Amino acid sequence: MSFTQFKPVKTRVQRSELAVPGSNPAMFEKALNSDVDFIFLDLEDAVAPNDKVQARENIIKALQELPWRARGKTMSVRINGLDTYWMYRDVVDVVEQAGEFLDTILIPKVGVPADVYVVEMMVAQIREAKGLKNEIGLEALIETALGMANVEAIAAARNLEALHFGVADFSASRRSRTVVIGGLNPDYPGDQWHAAIDRMVTACRAYGLRAIDGPFGDFNSPEDYVKAAKRAAVLGCEGKWAIHPSQIALANDVFSPPPAEVDRARRIIQALAEAAAQGKGAASLDGRMIDAASERMAQNVVTVADAIEAKGKADRSAA
Questions:
Q1: 169 labeled binding residue
Q2: How is the chain split into domains, by residue range?
């Protein structure tokens, strides 16, 4: 192991992340009462230009008045891009008026580390000016060719918690011949998003960030959503967006370790602890050799399972 190591920046349960347009406040209560882990109230792509200002006001009001944390929701706002004139007022107005109810800010179309720095600077100054005590983390959407080309440098940015893969804009940025959001293209013999997600996940884990897969457009095809989520989970993502409430339960299920997997992980850790007590560095479990690498993989499973269990207990207590 290298002497240079980056520990996890922030652990959050983020199996499912519901996108809720700020221009549609009728959806806020439904999101609040859902089983989703994480919600981002959207000011960007889901909001028409003429609705941006009203959507911002809707979001501020919702953050102030609805009991998101009491219902176990982690709250985020996706601001507009740094190349728009809406972005600065998104940050200023939302953080000044509702920053105490905010957990993270999702920055779209991040291309270079400086994009994260701009938002970090603004948030830090507002928090100091307003005397906000809570930390507000930053998350970045990797959804352009420039962002993917710089993903490792972006992952090293300060105050960043997670990277998300934005498949639709990434496809457009690369001029990929597809109009499918997150699904497989029958003209490609495999998963055309594999390399991109794999690179983003590696950057995340190198710098202690969470890795989140983005949207799947066809919410009438739960089977294909599950397939996409499982591919992302195998690569190391710990959650996926839900653009429709029906996708929440699917994401929660895919990104929750199955009981049998958790049980085996705990048995691996126990078996290696017993072996270590006997001065052994490896052990045998169910006819297979296990060692320190096995323990590290098992601990990942146990950590996720424990976090999900703790969240479930907190949610039940709040209810």
A1: yes
A2: 16-254, 259-318
